[in-house]
Write a structure and sequence with these properties.
11 strands, 3 helices, globular
C-alpha cells in the first residue's frame, strides 16, 4: 500500500506541476471540496447508472466499445466507457458525484484544473471552454482492471502487461508507457509487479 500511495502522490503532484506552468502557485491557491463520503451513486468498483459513452473531439477517436481493436485507450466501468478528452459531465452522470474534488487555477489553460476523487480512481480534467475534459485516470487500488488486458495493481506482473499489450512501449524509471493516437496507458512496475496504472490524454 505504501508504494501505491507514494506513486499516487507523485503522479498527482506531477499533473498539477504541469498544469501550473512549472509549479508556481497560482493566485488564490488550491481548494479541496468534499461532495460526499461514499463517492455519490457508486464507486469505480460499483455498477454505474446506464449512460451512453461520449466521443472525443480529437481526431482518431471513435464511439468505441473498449475492445482490443479500439484505436484509443479507454476505461470501461460497468456499462460506461470513460474516454480520454471526454466531457466530464458524461462521466458524472454515469459514475455519480465524487467523494471529493480538488481544484487548481490552470496556468496552461483558461479556467480550472480539477481532480475528481472516487474510491477506486482519480479523474483529472482540464478546462475546455466552460467544460471539464478528462486527461488522466489514475487507479487507486486493485479493485479495478484495465479494459482490454484486465491488468490490476499488485495482482499483475510486467509479463502480464507485455502479454496483454505487447512490447511496443517506452520504459523510463520503472514506468512502461504505451501510446495509441493521443492516448497513453502507463504501468508503474516495481520488482516485476504492477504498482500503478494511469490512462492519459496527450494535449496538443
Amino acid at each position: 500500500m505504501k508504494k501505491i500511495a507514494i506513486f499516487i502522490i507523485i503522479a498527482t503532484l506531477a499533473v498539477f506541476v504541469l498544469s501550473a506552468c512549472g509549479g508556481g502557485q497560482p493566485e488564490g491557491g488550491s481548494q479541496m471540496m468534499t461532495t460526499g463520503s461514499q463517492g455519490g451513486q457508486s464507486g469505480a468498483s460499483g455498477t454505474p447508472a446506464p449512460a451512453q459513452p461520449g466521443t472525443s473531439t480529437q481526431p482518431g477517436s471513435t464511439q468505441s466499445t473498449g475492445d482490443a481493436e479500439t484505436p484509443d485507450f479507454a476505461l470501461r466501468v460497468g456499462e460506461f466507457l470513460i474516454e480520454m478528452n471526454q466531457d466530464m459531465d458524461l462521466a458524472l452522470a454515469a459514475l455519480g458525484e465524487p467523494g471529493r474534488v480538488f481544484e487548481e487555477p490552470s496556468c496552461a489553460f483558461d479556467g480550472i484544473d480539477r481532480v475528481f476523487g472516487y474510491p477506486d480512481m482519480q479523474i483529472h480534467t482540464y478546462p475546455v471552454g466552460n467544460a471539464d475534459h478528462i486527461h488522466t485516470i489514475m487507479f487507486l487500488n486493485d479493485l479495478i482492471r484495465t479494459t482490454e488486458g484486465r491488468i490490476r495493481i499488485r495482482h499483475s506482473s510486467l509479463q502480464d502487461v507485455i502479454d496483454a499489450y505487447g512490447d511496443d512501449f517506452v520504459h523510463e524509471a520503472g514506468m512502461y508507457t504505451y501510446t495509441r493516437g493521443l492516448t497513453t496507458l502507463e504501468f508503474f512496475i516495481d520488482d516485476g509487479i504492477v504498482e500503478g496504472i494511469t490512462y492519459g490524454f496527450i494535449i496538443v
